[in-house]
């Protein structure tokens, strides 16, 4: 009887030859007929390699003497055992390896597609955010320039100071408009500058107050978002009314886990048919959802006895 170590050694050599044949069939030939799948070729090659490798191993053992091999009962039985086992186990192992390889490729491909999709979504959101922001900035600037033109046309002595304030404001504001890391504190600086500019234009009709806790000023905040609400309050609330009004900019976060609330309220003319449908507010709603997620919201309610309150709610 063939010793077990010798039998295991022969089996190991045959297994290595089958593995080499499996790997070679996975790479060659480069092109296969349409009716022949690569995995099927590899399984068939392994099935053919096992008996051929077994014959080769036994021929090496007997020095190429086929007659000596056929006359030795123990070697014949060992040949049959190894070849038979290899014919059963070899293709099964090959199919298992192919399955794991295909599964790993599928997971890798799925992960690659997911990463690519996430990158494309991020690029699309960035492009959309820049487009919305590009629409908002001219909207604000052209409205302000129109106000200055009205002062010039009416010969108001406030025209020159307002223009100087606008220039100073733009010098401070322009570097922040494209700042993706802007904070609520940065936005409040712009809001205060804008309100001071508007106060110069109508000193007897506009008062304002800004009260935001210091711990909220470091929160990330979309550039121009709060300024859009303030500009909307001036345009639709204070300007149309003969008596003007007061604008308040406030913020609070009640308890941990609750949304941050930032609002702009005015005592102007209140809700009108056109309030809330302008380009600025439409874009602001979209920017909030892209910046903070779908839970972010913009609510507009009437003040009592008159005026409007625009409130942002979001989870930072």
UniProtKB/TrEMBL annotation:
One Gene Ontology molecular-function label: kinase activity
Domain Signal transduction histidine kinase internal region: 127-206
Pfam families: His_kinase (PF06580)
Keywords attached to this entry: Kinase, Membrane, Transferase, Transmembrane, Transmembrane helix
Membrane-traversing stretches: 36-64, 76-99
InterPro entries found in the cross-reference section: Bact_2-comp_sensor_kinase, HATPase_C_sf, Sig_transdc_His_kin_internal
Coiled-coil boundaries: none
Domain of life where this protein originates: Bacteria
Gene3D superfamilies according to UniProt: Histidine kinase-like ATPase, C-terminal domain
PANTHER family assigned: SENSOR HISTIDINE KINASE YPDA, SIGNAL TRANSDUCTION HISTIDINE KINASE INTERNAL REGION DOMAIN-CONTAINING PROTEIN
The protein, known as: Histidine kinase
